[in-house]
């Protein structure tokens, strides 16, 4: 029997107003198709092999905070790695959760479009890290193709609506400038994104 499993590499409870409303639990999953230069997750992953949990096992673990989720409008945030690689798992997990919980997904959108469609009804809010909207900067920093992210963002906006999508635009040392960041924000506004967050990557030596 092929029971869905989630490669759990991080579990962080009782976060307040961090990448989600109210109290959330972050469940970080392994795996990502991109190779961002400053990725700390891949370094962490290399050190800590993933524990593969079933939907009911994960549900049992996060349920300990059920009352906090209900009282604050919080819930569970799927992060990574790339959370939407595990779209079928997230969909099944949502099916177990009380409707009062909110499900958040942090994503770069570097996944097949089927994955986006799969989670459209399962995820309440999407937090997208777009890196940069300039294809050259995007490719140089991530090794991936910007047009996949952009096409998936259009799909997400059309399928789920802009009120459920927040896009984060980083200033990435050595890769883009404040002017590039402002251009990305402008492109996003033209696409219909209404929730845009500019921020700076803080580079730490994790060795
Ligand atoms: S998208 Fe995130 S997890 Fe993937 S390589 Fe980039 S920083 Fe790392």
Q: Could you give the count of β-strands?
A: 8
CATH class: Alpha Beta
Instruction: Note the total helix count.
Output: 8
CATH topology: TIM Barrel
| SSE pattern | EEHEHHEHEHEHHEHE
- Report the portion of residues in β strands: 25-35%
Main beta sheet, described? Answer: 8 strands, mixed
Indicate how many domains the architecture comprises.
Answer: 1
Which whole number gives the mean pLDDT? 93
- Estimate percent helicity: 25-40%
Fourth CATH level, the homologous superfamily: Aldolase class I
Give the CA-based shape. globular
Low-confidence region ranges: none
Secondary structural class: alpha/beta
Gyration radius over CA:
17 Å
Question: What small molecules accompany the polymer chains?
Answer: iron/sulfur cluster
Strand sequence of the main sheet, in spatial order?
Answer: 3-1-2-4-5-6-7-8
Distance between the termini: 40 Å
Which CATH architecture?
A: Alpha-Beta Barrel
Quick gist of this model?
The protein is of the alpha/beta class.
How does this structure look, described?
The chain has 207 residues and is α/β, with parallel strands linked by helices. The protein has a single domain (5-165), classed as Aldolase class I (TIM Barrel), CATH 3.20.20. The chain has eight helices and eight strands; from the N terminus they run E-E-H-E-H-H-E-H-E-H-E-H-H-E-H-E. It has helices at 41-47, 55-62, 66-72, 87-96, 113-119, 135-142, 146-160, 178-191, and strands at residues 5-16, 23-29, 51-54, 75-79, 102-107, 125-129, 165-171, 195-200. Strand 4, helix 4 and strand 5 (102-107) form a beta-alpha-beta unit. The longest helix has 15 residues, at 146-160. Iron/sulfur cluster (SF4) binds at residues 32, 34-36, 39, 41-42, 80-82, 108.
């Amino acid at each position: 029997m092929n029971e869905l499993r989630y490669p759990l590499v991080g579990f962080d409870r009782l976060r307040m107003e961090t990448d989600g409303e109210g109290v959330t639990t972050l469940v970080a999953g392994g795996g990502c198709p991109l190779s961002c230069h400053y990725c700390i997750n891949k370094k962490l992953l290399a050190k800590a092999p993933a524990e593969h949990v079933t939907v009911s096992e994960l549900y049992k673990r996060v349920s300990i905070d059920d009352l906090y989720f209900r009282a604050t409008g919080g819930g569970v945030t799927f992060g990574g790695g790339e959370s939407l690689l595990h779209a079928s798992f997230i969909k099944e997990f949502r099916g177990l959760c009380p409707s009062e919980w909110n499900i958040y997904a942090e994503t770069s959108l570097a996944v097949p479009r089927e994955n986006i469609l799969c989670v459209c009804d399962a995820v309440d809010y999407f937090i997208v890290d777009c890196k940069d909207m300039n294809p050259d900067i995007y490719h140089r920093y991530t090794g991936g193709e910007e047009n996949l992210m952009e096409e998936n963002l259009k799909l997400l906006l059309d399928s789920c609506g802009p009120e459920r999508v927040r896009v984060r635009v980083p200033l990435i040392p050595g890769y883009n400038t404040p002017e590039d960041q402002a251009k990305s924000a402008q492109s996003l506004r033209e696409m219909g994104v209404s929730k845009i967050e500019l921020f700076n990557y803080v580079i730490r030596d994790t060795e």
